[in-house]
Amino acid sequence: MNVGRRVDYAVRALSYLAGMPPGKIVSRVDIEEKQDIPSYYLSKIMKDLVAGGLVQSHIGSKGGFSLARPAATISIKEVYETVERPMALMECLDKGENYCSYCPVCNQISVWDKAQTLLANYLAKVSIGDIAAQHGLRERLSALDN
Amino acid sequence: MNVGRRVDYAVRALSYLAGMPPGKIVSRVDIEEKQDIPSYYLSKIMKDLVAGGLVQSHIGSKGGFSLARPAATISIKEVYETVERPMALMECLDKGENYCSYCPVCNQISVWDKAQTLLANYLAKVSIGDIAAQHGLRERLSALDN
DNA sequence: CTGAATATAGACCTAATAGGTCTATTTTGT
DNA sequence: ACAAAATAGACCTATTAGGTCTATATTCAG
């Protein structure tokens, strides 16, 4: 039920990039230092973000990373699923009906399914752009209330 | 981000008890067999449920377990927190502001906070009684939509 | 009173995972 | 040519999830 560092770090890195002038290329080490992320660790996360098309990488001297898309189009849900795995509160929700023999008669599963949908819908509505913008996030979140 | 067996098994055990005639005492082994829960494992879970006041235990021959409260008053959120820990999507939401030095300026945290509240509110509205009742659960869940 | 059935408490084990660190290689700007 | 960077992947360690077992105390039925 908890989210883990990979996602935390990914969100921080992406927000940091989002706060840069458009097109600015930032090195891994710079992101790690400014965002208080353990040395080296980010390299694995950035690899996923590049592979997922959220971030563009630039090899070589003066290389680094920049956002591959506008920050407003990158949802937290997408970030989560890019660096981790599909969001699923229970394994059967991910692995399908025949994962557990009780699935066909399981009442429990519809509850977790609903909870998961609630969560996913919300997280799909919040973007890296929202997080990067310093002002009024809490207010904008409240507006999402229903 | 996922819920784990302890909660799964706890919900199954409680629902099973809820489906029994009121006051009926059911042994651990019986629950394990009928609900397809690994032998012995349930003993640790039931201990928590007893300690949490959700279940009443009866030691000795012909002993076993029964619900300590009406099934309709036992929410899934409560079950979760009884057999696991307080629901928290990120550690700082649980351990407080000084867990991470970035907390005071962290925009991310308000997003997870909101997500967590959404989840908790929903799970607090669904009861073991809802799950135990065989009919119309999905319909009743839909009614919770907003 | 005795024995069987039960919860209780806690030890124990194993595999997987999270989180982190490091190094060799390739690419590229200056 | 050199330095700075990403890339790829090996490696390590502590924790946790999930499960199994056993010794003990309690209680009911005969």
Briefly characterize the structure.
The structure is a homodimer of 146-residue chains. Chain A is mainly α and 146 residues long. Chain A contains eight helices and two strands, in the order αααββααααα.
Please describe what this structure looks like.
The structure is a homodimer of 146-residue chains. With 146 residues, chain A is mainly α. Chain A has a single domain, classed as Arc Repressor Mutant, subunit A, CATH 1.10.10. Helices cover 53% and strands 5% of the residues of chain A. The first copy, chain A, is built from eight helices and two strands, in the order αααββααααα. In chain A, α1 packs across α4 (76-83). The longest helix of chain A is centred in the C-terminal third of the chain and has 18 residues, at 108-125. Chain A starts with a helix and ends with a helix. The mean pLDDT of chain A is 90. The A-B interface holds A 1-4, 8, 11-12, 15, 36, 76, 80, 84, 87-91, 101-102, 107-108, 110-112, 114-115, 118-119, 122-123, 126, 130-132, 134, 137-138, 141, 144, 146 and B 1-4, 8, 11-12, 15, 36, 76, 80, 84, 87-91, 101-102, 107-108, 110-112, 114-115, 118-119, 122-123, 126, 130-132, 134, 137-138, 141, 144, 146. Chain A binds a DNA duplex (30 and 30 nucleotides) through residues 4-6, 27-29, 38-41, 43-44, 46-47, 50, 57-65.
